Amino acid sequence: MKLYYSPGACSLSPHIALLEAGLPYELVKVDIRAKKLENGEDYLKLNPKGQVPALGLDSGEIVTEGPVIVQMIADQAAAKALAPAHGSSERYKLLEWLNFLTSEVHKSFGPMFAPALNDEAKAFFRDRVMGKLRYIDSQLAGRDYLMGKQFTVADGYLFTMLTWGDRMKFDLSSMPNLAAYKDRVAARPQVQEALKKEGLAQAK
């Protein structure tokens, strides 16, 4: 498999999942602004959406959308329990988390990276994200991970966005459950390996 990624982008989530799953893969770096691969090829010919992540399967098929990709990875390494079994109530809980993260948290982070957006607008989205993070903090009380004791692909996704919060100087001091969770996920060897392979500083 080939993971098309941009360092520190949301492609970090499936990168973590691949390492946690122990699956073989190749990293292919994408210049998102230029829509080019490292070898100069047009990324849009491969993925017309022009975004990362994209997962190239051995069959030649390209799969996009992070929440889908991470589930596909988890299902290929079922013994790692990165996702509950299909059809189980726990699987639907995982889907609930993945959908919340992608629609409520991820999409609210996006505008803060837009150079054209003014500071007032960015402050609106910052407050929106902080509100979502406070909700997550409340749900993490008494839990090691989003689903309880077991690390799942949803945790890699949330952690990825928490690294964005680091870059934006988010203060998590009023959210002790989330702050401890972030440190717990960051300490996982596969997470540190993903950060290292993407040339990112280790999570604090």
Automatic annotation (TrEMBL):
Q: Which GO terms describe its molecular function?
A: glutathione transferase activity
Q: Which residue intervals define the domain GST C-terminal in the entry?
A: 87-204
Query: Which principal EC class is assigned to this enzyme?
Result: transferase
Q: Which key words tag this protein in UniProt?
A: Transferase
The answer, when asked if DNA-binding is one of the entry's keywords, is no
**Entry EC no(s):** 2.5.1.18
Q: Which Pfam families match?
A: GST_C_3, GST_N_2
Boundaries of every GST N-terminal domain copy = 1-81
PROSITE patterns according to UniProt: GST_CTER, GST_NTER
Report the NCBIfam families cross-referenced here: PRK10542.1
- According to UniProt, the name of this protein is Glutathione transferase GstA
Its source organism is Bradyrhizobium symbiodeficiens
